[in-house]
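Table S2 (text version). Query chain:
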Amino acid sequence: MAINLKRMSADPELVAGGHRSCIGCAAPTILRQALHVAGPDTVVCFATGCMEVSTTIYPYTAWRVPYIHCAFENSAATLSGVEAAYRVMKRRGRIPEDKKINFIVFAGDGGTYDIGFQSLSGAMERGHNLLYICYDNNAYMNTGGQRSSATPRGAATMTSPSGKVIPGKQQRRKDMTACMIAHDIPFVAQASVSHHMDFMRKVARGLEVDGPAFINIVQPCHRGWRCKPEDSIQLARVAVETRFWPLYQVDHGQWKVNYKPKEVVPVIEWLKAQGRFKHLTESDTEDIIAWHQEQVETNWATLLEKEQATKAAAEKQEAPVAGA
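Corresponding structure-token output:
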């Protein structure tokens, strides 16, 4: 599917204005961009989280597509059931055979990396034809900013405060994108709200493939990240430029890095722009900043190797056979 911004700008908004998300929050932008690609024939399931409470405060709703709110832990299972019912109704002739309906789950990292991981894994393993989009703001922001397994090492949160004894969260963050790749599903990708065309193309591809798809998109939370509301998109962009959050995809086993920074930005530039890492820039006794840079370099090198292996395999397959 080609992304036509001019056409999309004339389409009606499927997430209405007037919702109650924080000023400067980038999550509504993610919702709007995804639904501009998906269109009105879409069923959305939303796990409990920031965007759920801000868009569906009873008796109001910002959603102009069929919308289901469910608990933290079962959004993927809920939409799996809806998608299964859709297939049954097609077989029985109650929905026209050529009628295409998209199924999208939206959930934060708390409802994806942690509480919702079991139902997500099950939906991916069963092969339901749905797209799961995780907007990753690195903590449980809806309830005050508690650490999640998506929280980077060293970040100060409500439940991993920085002090004289412990410099923020002690554990490294979970690589959720890698977990989904390990499920061997048709399409997995990382995206950023700062790179809208890349994200929208990935949404289109995720809806196009036959089977489950997963997109992990970084979404700064200015309250939890302790930055200015107007800096949300810029912080997402710097996360990409430092390669802390690389943009890549795995499409039917084929690895591709979608963006390679021309001038690499040191990861400290991303960390020091956030108040949750302020203690590290003042006194980094455990060399956590250096550790982050090392992790970025290692992960980037691995990504490039996997992309190169994909290219080498394709070239080998296309090479003429000797004597043919």
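Notes on Table S2: The longest helix spans residues 288-318. The two ends are 37 Å apart (CA to CA).
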